[in-house]
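Lecture notes, unit on binding sites. The following record was shown on slide 14. It pairs a sequence with NDP.
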Amino acid sequence: MAAMVIDGKEAAAQVLDTVKTATAELIRTTGITPGIAVIIVGEDPASQAYVRSKGRRAEECGFRSVTHRLGADTAQADLLRLVGELNGDDAIHAILVQLPLPGHIDEGEVIQAIAPHKDVDGFSFVNVGKLATGQTDTAFVPCTPAGSMVLLRRALAKTDYSGLNAVVIGRSNIVGKPMANLLLAANATVTIAHSRTRDLPALARSADILVAAVGRPQMVRRDWIKPGACVIDVGINRVPAPELGEGKSRIVGDVAFDECAEIAGAITPVPGGVGLMTVAMLMANTLASACRAAGVSAPRY
Ligand code: NDP
């Protein structure tokens, strides 16, 4: 294997350490404790697990963490009322609605009801617009692309990607598009690829920075990689793993790791890469929100 493996575990731990230290300092100097409210509607086991882990991390960081667990039959009006109350609660700096919501609720309407200055997921039109217009200092940037940028900076040991070609495979609002905007803000020359792109392997081979956010197990193969490229694998795919026992499964990324690692200069593993950064950046965004409320500057990562 030639590539440097980018350690998401270590990077996430460093982000969380910085958040913990800065939170203690914020509380000491201003008396403001970052507050995060997580809303979950329904009983989906995966969502329940995500929410528990976010709550645990928030408490480890020294935040005040509140979880609102609502029944699957909650009316949209009641959910919107709760979001409205949290918008007006000065002790809450971050509001997170766990997705997906039950089918009878309009997700878009709920997300847009969150006050942009508390929208730490970065999904509100104000935050999307700020990112798209390059106002990254005051935007909340969606956590997965924000975490991917931290890993990229560590791998490339620089923040300016002038002259580098970046290809982002995937154009979702939560990963692909914000990732492309962040790379553009860092002066990379960016191409966004998607399911209608022609000759994706050739396009991928032009990338100094290749980001895969597709949701297709190990789609990116060895001959898609430019020698020395930095590869960020956002994909999280559960695949059958009979070798581990009957009915067992394992998680793989969108990149065929072993073969691509022979060609790439640096590469994120799955698991152990981008996935761990997402919750860490959520904590970073929550702290940033509290710092803005207090009028002090937030740490950079
Ligand atoms: P979406 O399903 O919303 O988007 C997938 C994108 O991939 C679409 O733009 C789609 O194109 C494109 N695509 C699908 N098939 C192909 C193909 N054959 N060739 C080229 N492009 C293709 O997914 P998300 O962005 O939400 O997530 C992507 C992956 O990242 C998933 O594996 C998900 O689990 C993972 N993820 C990981 C997170 C983490 O914390 N690490 C957080 C969020 C997501 P089109 O638009 O044309 O349909």
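Take-home: Residues 144, 169-172, 174-176, 193-197, 200, 213-216, 234-237, 274-275, 278 surround NDP (CB under 6 Å).
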